[in-house]
Structure formats: structure tokens, C-alpha cells
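Attaching the record inline, Q. Sequence:
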Amino acid sequence: MAAVDNRYSRFVQFVKIALPLLALGLLSTMFLLSRSVDVDGAIPFFEGVEQIARDQKLASPKFSGVTSDGSTVSVTAESAKPDLTDPRRMSAVNVMADITTTSGAQFFVISDNAIYDGGTDLLDLLGRVQITTSSGYELTTDKLVANLEETGLRAPGPVNGAGPSGTLEAGEMELTGNSGSQVLVFKGGVKLIYDPQE
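Structure, as predicted:
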């Protein structure tokens, strides 16, 4: 009986020494035989993550507010992304703007692109810009600047389309007056083809 116990004790003593040595041998073999890691190719999707960080954008953003003279403004877009060099600036794609003055006059604008500057509260609508007014004008231009602080619209370049009296072309256009009485003024070689049926 004592011999059996003695053998068991010796076995336990042997295992206490052998198992840690075996584990140490396995670990050292794993480190010695391991290949060097290619840091550049270790995480192949990392470039994609950087691209996502650079291309941050908002899907279907919407902005609503009131200008200092009481006009309501609503702007929506398909997507928008901030300017990485100036956080106050943002570019947007497929933009729709709706401006309603306190007198009830409404201006609905659609453009391919837009740039909003939070420092000046100006929205530059670019590309093919379409303007529809509640007074009956349907106009197109390449650029329209909307002032979101004080109600204002200005097309610094050629404008053409149709109005209540017929078709017209102009070198530029501007919305002038106060919120109670605002008028679209056409300047720069205005050409109006009067249509009495209109």
C-alpha cells in the first residue's frame, strides 16, 4: 500500500515539473517558427476605413429656419458632406430650397449642387438651377445665391425662362425689397417676348 502511494507521489512530482516545461517548449517553438508580420498588408481594409473617414456625409439632410425678416426657409438635399478645411462650409447634392416670405410670396428652387457657408449664411446653388415663384415665373440659371440671414436671392449670371407676360432673358436677377413687398428685378440686357395669351 505504501509503495502505491509512493509511486503516485512521484508521478505527481514529475507532472508538476514536466507540464510547465512542455508548455514553455511549445510557446518558444511558436515564437521561434512564426513568420514576420507585414505591417502594410496586415489589415487590408484599413485604406477603406480611411476613405470612409475622408468621405463623411449626411444622407437626406434637412434644414429649416426663419430669416431675420420673418421669411421661412426649408432646404433639403440627397446628401451633404462637410468641407475638411473649413467646418462652417458644407457641400450638398440634388438640393431643394423653399422660401416663403411674410407676405406669402413663395420661391421654390431646385439645383444639382450647393455650397453652404455658415460664416456668411449664404447658400450657393450651382449647376442647373430651376426657380419657380408663386407669382408665375419659371426660370433657369447656372448659379443662384440665397441669403438665409436676410431674405434674398441673386443670380449673378444669365437667367432665362417664362413669366406672367411671356418669355424673358436677362443678364442677372435679384430679389429686392423688404419682407412685406419683395420684387424680382431683372438687369443686364433684359429681353422680354410678350405673349398676350399668358
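The longest strand covers residues 89-100. The radius of gyration is 35 Å.

More tomorrow.
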